Every structure is written in C-alpha cells, then in structure tokens.
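Need tokens for this chain, all 34 residues.
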Amino acid sequence: EINRSPPFVYSENKIILTREAGEGWMCLCEISVD
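Here are the structure tokens for all 34 residues:
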C-alpha cells in the first residue's frame, strides 16, 4: 500500500518526492532507500 504524506509518497522501499500540482501529485524524482 502507498501512504501519502506530503511532500513524500512512500512506496515499498522507495521514496518518491512529490510536489503539489493543481490536480494531484507530480513525481519529481524517485529514490531507493535500500
């Protein structure tokens, strides 16, 4: 499951940096936290 907690979205072992967009989320980059 994906837990959304601005400005980060935690997806399994990866942290996707996000930024608030007018209609939703915009993926800026993806980081492996392994």
